[in-house]
């Protein structure tokens, strides 16, 4: 059953019940008022007729007719007692049942009952009883009850229609929410983004949007993980083919019964070289997979200047014949100036790969590698300058692609790919071009300022 129909039925049932309940409380209250009004009227009427009782009874041989003519209200029931003469007009009880004292009274005769008031005149010794059958008041009360039930009966269909209309207007925001949810359930990445002015509905829409965002994020992570697994498998198969082929050849030489000692030594050297290359490749692939699966949730506050010093120290150990220098252009007295909310391991991989690339292609052991750290409005800048021959023209457009390396490179063509992926994770950019002096190559990394947790740029 629709919610609007529930509203309609609830209104159709509830409003008549409320009317009947109100009537049940009102009818006794109104009955008491009617009784009080009746008693007051009988009292007033009896007091007004008592002084006239003797004259009304003595003016004609038909005193009852005279009394009827004198009554301002023809429906009154009156009994006169004057000098032993009893005159009854209207629906009155037997005179013998009437009280002989002044005041209100009730009289029952069989199934009938009257309410009246007795009043006397001291001068003429006349007494007047003004009475009213109880059925008159009972009829008024029954009429009042009938009107209550009639109103409840009339209100029921009206309440049903009004409840249905109110229900449709009330649930209209829910209907809009349902339609929006139906549209976004196809998984297109859309959001409900509903603002109806009804806090509860808007809260539900916000919760659904958050759930959809988490769903899309999970799906994206699953797809990325699947693509990373495929990429890892393809990369491993591509790069392991050559060293594994060399290993197989060396094993064949070692197993050959006629192989000479020199051939065996050369085969062992090839095995060691292939083993070293396989280990290096696995380490690079591990770093590549970490860069592909990294998430902003891994970000922490990192002192980039300190990270640069650590990376330089490690690079000097890896390349003892190369000169490394650091130029940090951060204003003095600002300890948080180089603090960035970032992935520490990822930035370390960026620095290590750029320094290794510069050491290998940067002009030999006599060249100097300079790493710079500075700021400009909106960005933290990392630069690595070498003194090498520059980037070959055929590699400039594909420099950060996978497996792109010069013929003289001993690497696998994945180091700069890792650099690009980590920088993209930080919503930054990386560029390669000539140094300001025109000699060698400069790699420029821009990391955006929203990564600065302590201080804006």
UniProtKB/TrEMBL annotation:
E.C. number: 2.7.13.3
Enzyme class, spelled out: transferase
Domain Histidine kinase as annotated: residue spans: 235-451
GO molecular function: phosphorelay sensor kinase activity
Source organism superkingdom: Bacteria
Principal location listed in the UniProt entry: membrane
UniProt-recorded name of the protein: histidine kinase
Organism, scientific name: Catenulispora acidiphila (strain DSM 44928 / JCM 14897 / NBRC 102108 / NRRL B-24433 / ID139908)
Catalytic activity: ATP + protein L-histidine = ADP + protein N-phospho-L-histidine
GO CC aspect terms: plasma membrane
Keywords, alphabetical: Kinase, Membrane, Phosphoprotein, Transferase, Transmembrane, Transmembrane helix, Two-component regulatory system
Residues spanning the membrane: 6-29
Subcellular localization: Cell membrane
């Amino acid at each position: 059953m629709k919610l609007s129909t529930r509203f309609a039925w609830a209104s159709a049932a509830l409003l008549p019940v409320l009317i009947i309940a109100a009537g049940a409380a009102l009818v006794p209250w109104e009955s008491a008022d009617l009784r009080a009004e009746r008693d007051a009227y009988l009292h007033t009427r009896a007091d007004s007729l008592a002084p006239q009782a003797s004259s009304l009874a003595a003016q004609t041989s038909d005193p009852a007719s005279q009394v009827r003519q004198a009554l301002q209200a023809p429906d009154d029931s009156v009994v006169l007692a004057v000098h032993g003469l009893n005159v009854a007009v209207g629906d009155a009880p037997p005179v013998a049942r009437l009280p002989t004292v002044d005041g209100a009274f009730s009289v029952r005769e069989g199934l009938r009952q009257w309410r009246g008031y007795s009043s006397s005149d001291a001068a003429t010794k006349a007494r007047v009883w003004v009475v009213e059958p109880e059925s008159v008041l009972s009829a008024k009360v029954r009429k009042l009850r009938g009107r209550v039930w009639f109103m409840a009966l009339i209100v029921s269909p009206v309440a049903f229609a009004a409840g249905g209309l109110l229900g449709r207007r009330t649930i209209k925001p829910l209907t809009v929410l349902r339609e929006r949810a139906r549209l976004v359930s196809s998984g297109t990445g859309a959001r409900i983004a509903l603002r109806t002015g009804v806090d509860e509905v808007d809260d539900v829409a916000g919760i659904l949007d958050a759930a959809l965002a988490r769903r899309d994020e999970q799906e994206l992570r699953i797809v990325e993980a699947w693509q990373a697994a495929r990429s890892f498998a393809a990369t491993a198969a591509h790069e392991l083919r050559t060293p594994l082929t060399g290993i197989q050849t060396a094993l064949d030489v070692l197993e050959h019964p006629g192989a000479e000692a020199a051939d065996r030594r050369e085969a062992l050297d090839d095995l060691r070289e292939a083993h070293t290359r396989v280990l290096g490749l696995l380490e690079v692939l591990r770093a590549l997979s970490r860069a592909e699966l990294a998430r902003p949730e891994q970000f922490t506050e990192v002192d980039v200047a300190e990270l640069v010093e650590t990376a330089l120290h490690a690079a000097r150990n890896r390349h003892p014949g190369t000169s490394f220098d650091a130029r940090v252009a951060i204003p003095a007295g600002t300890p948080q100036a180089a603090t960035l909310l970032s992935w520490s391991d990822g930035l370390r991989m960026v620095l290590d790969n750029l320094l290794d690339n510069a050491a290998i292609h940067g002009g030999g052991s006599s060249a100097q590698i300079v790493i710079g750290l500075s700021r400009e409005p909106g960005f933290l800048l990392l630069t690595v300058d070498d003194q090498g021959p520059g980037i070959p023209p055929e590699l400039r457009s594909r420099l950060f692609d996978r497996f792109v390396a010069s013929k003289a490179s001993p690497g696998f063509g994945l180091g700069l790919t890792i650099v690009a992926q980590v920088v993209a994770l930080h919503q930054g950019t990386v560029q390669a071009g000539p140094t300001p002096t025109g000699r060698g190559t400069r790699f420029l990394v821009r990391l955006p300022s929203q990564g600065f947790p302590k201080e804006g740029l």
